[in-house]
Amino acid sequence: MSTRLDRETKTLRAMVALYCRGRHRHQGLCSECIILRSYALSRLDSCKFGEHKPTCAKCPVHCYRPEMRAKVKEVMRYAGPRMLYRHPLLAIQHLLDGRKKPGKASR
Question: Which value, to the nearest 10 degrees, does the dihedral of the CA atoms of residues 92, 94, 45, 5 take?
Fold first, then answer.
């Protein structure tokens, strides 16, 4: 069974790929989406909540820079509904994770 952070990483990667393919018409990732994905993954790696991390929308600590947060919101608005068709298991797990209350910080 994968850990919560592993699932979050897979979900983030899948959402950025769906967004880039749909909006930028790239089969891989364009340079803008590579930068966004790298930034988001670095924020995920340094999340103080660790395995008890809530979804970003429910997080009490907003660790993204405002411009990157806006870009990630745009990606999630586009890719979120499409995840049910392309990656149903990740989408359902993300929805369930979003219903959980935020845990205590592990650091």
Answer: -50
Name which of 1-15, 22-36, 80-94 the model is least confident about.
1-15
Q: Does the residue 86 lie in any domain?
A: yes
Does residue 22 lie in a domain region?
A: yes
Q: Is residue 44 part of a domain?
A: yes
Which has the closest alpha carbon to 29: 66, 75, 86, 63?
75
Q: How many structural domains does the chain have?
A: 1
Amino acid making up residue 2: S
The answer, as to whether pTM is greater than 0.70, is yes
Q: Which helix (H) or strand (E) holds 76?
A: helix 66-86
Judge whether 106 lies within some domain: no
